[in-house]
């Protein structure tokens, strides 16, 4: 009896209900956990990058452009000009002719200063189209400083004034807001005077355009013809500019800027027969468009931003999960279950793709 009990206790002493895990099992689990940890960290870093990008777009906003019909009737507009012309002022005449064929002499409303003609150092284009750079909205608003032209100077008392060969014409003039043409011609042979070109006339319509804009005068906003020059050595030359003026409104963070932009086409021709239909000079045709462009810096509401951010992050997690499962299925089909991404068995780390 005692011998049987002794055998029973000896069997119980050798029985172990909780066998110890081998060292290689522990090592394999450590490697797997490290791999999972690295993948998890990289994944969360990617989600953090997406969230950071969305925060940047939320605070930075976006530009919204719309075209609206200008329903406010306006009878007049303002044109701002600042020209150097290689002709003495007493020989020049400035007029506006609109589509009703009415002619308005505006020389008295502008400032004329005799000067030695020269090309300023800040000229960006001579006899070539200027490269137009569209500024950022914040930069444009920072340049929108309204100003007025200075008073006329008496240059007749300056040294060498008798030999001045140029004229500085500048100022702001109201015009009828209809299609028209600004004409800078010579008093000797304008389209209203029939006759030949005087042999001794000091006429040269080479010119520098420092400013040509419409609406309120913002000297720091760069327009397409600003700081350009056109030169010629023939007195009977006609410079023709055709402008399509588009009212433009800029809005950003409560600030509003009303201005006018224009597209440009130009041509140069020599006038061979001075008459009532063609004249030498500078002809600037303009047409005001009925559409107004509204450029506004907008931002979505914070609630919309949160909903959008959560939606994007959840979609990324959802797609990543299914891609992970798809990759797992493909690996199982190619190499068997031992290559499953979800297989944490210790033998997986010891076998390669060619192992049986």
From TrEMBL:
Ranges for domain Endoplasmic reticulum vesicle transporter N-terminal: 12-102
Transmembrane regions listed in the UniProt entry: 41-63, 305-324
GO CC aspect terms: COPII-coated ER to Golgi transport vesicle; endoplasmic reticulum membrane; endoplasmic reticulum-Golgi intermediate compartment membrane; Golgi membrane
Membrane topology: Multi-pass membrane protein
Endoplasmic reticulum vesicle transporter C-terminal domain location: 157-321
UniProt subcellular location: Endoplasmic reticulum membrane; Endoplasmic reticulum-Golgi intermediate compartment membrane; Golgi apparatus membrane; Membrane
Keywords, in A-Z order: Endoplasmic reticulum, ER-Golgi transport, Golgi apparatus, Membrane, Transmembrane, Transmembrane helix, Transport
Pfam family, one: ERGIC_N
Signal peptide positions on this chain: none
Keyword Membrane included in the entry's annotation: yes
Keyword Transmembrane helix assigned: yes
Domain of life from the UniProt record: Eukaryota
GO biological process, one term: endoplasmic reticulum to Golgi vesicle-mediated transport
Principal place of residence: endoplasmic reticulum
Family to which the UniProt record says this protein belongs: Belongs to the ERGIC family.
Biological function: Plays a role in transport between endoplasmic reticulum and Golgi.
Protein name from the UniProt record: Endoplasmic reticulum-Golgi intermediate compartment protein
Source species of the chain: Saccharomycodes ludwigii
């Amino acid at each position: 009896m005692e011998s049987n009990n002794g055998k029973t206790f000896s069997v119980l002493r050798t029985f172990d209900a909780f066998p110890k895990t081998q060292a290689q099992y522990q090592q394999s689990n450590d490697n797997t956990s490290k791999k999972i940890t690295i993948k998890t960290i990289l994944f969360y870093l990617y989600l953090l990058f997406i969230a950071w990008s969305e925060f940047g777009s939320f605070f930075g906003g976006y530009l919204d452009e719309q075209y609206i019909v200008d329903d406010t009737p306006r009878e007049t507009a303002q044109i701002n000009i600042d020209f150097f012309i290689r002709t003495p002022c007493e020989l020049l005449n400035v007029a506006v002719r609109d589509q009703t064929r009415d002619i308005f002499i505006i020389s008295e409303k502008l400032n004329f200063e005799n000067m030695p003609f020269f090309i300023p150092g800040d000229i960006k284009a001579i006899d070539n189209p200027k490269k137009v750079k569209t500024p950022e909205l914040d930069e444009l608003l920072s340049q929108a400083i309204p100003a007025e032209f200075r008073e006329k100077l008496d240059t007749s008392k300056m040294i060498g004034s008798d030999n001045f060969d140029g004229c500085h014409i500048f100022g702001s003039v109201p015009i009828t807001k209809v299609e028209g043409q600004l004409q800078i011609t010579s008093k000797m042979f304008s389209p209203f005077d029939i006759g030949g070109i005087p042999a001794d006339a000091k006429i040269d319509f080479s010119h520098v355009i420092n400013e040509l804009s419409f609406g309120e005068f913002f000297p720091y906003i760069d327009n397409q013809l600003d700081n350009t020059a056109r030169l010629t050595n023939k007195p009977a030359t006609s410079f023709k500019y055709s402008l399509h003026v588009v009212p433009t409104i800029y809005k950003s963070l409560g600030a509003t800027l009303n201005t006018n932009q224009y597209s440009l086409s130009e041509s140069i021709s020599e006038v061979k027969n001075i008459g009532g239909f063609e004249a030498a000079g500078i002809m600037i045709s303009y047409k005001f468009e009925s559409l107004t462009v509204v450029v506004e810096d907008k931002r979505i509401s914070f609630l919309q931003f949160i909903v959008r951010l959560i939606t994007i992050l959840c979609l990324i997690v959802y797609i990543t999960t299914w891609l992970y499962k798809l990759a797992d299925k493909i690996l199982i089909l190619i190499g068997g279950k031992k290559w499953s991404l979800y297989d944490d068995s210790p033998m997986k780390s010891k076998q390669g793709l060619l192992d049986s």
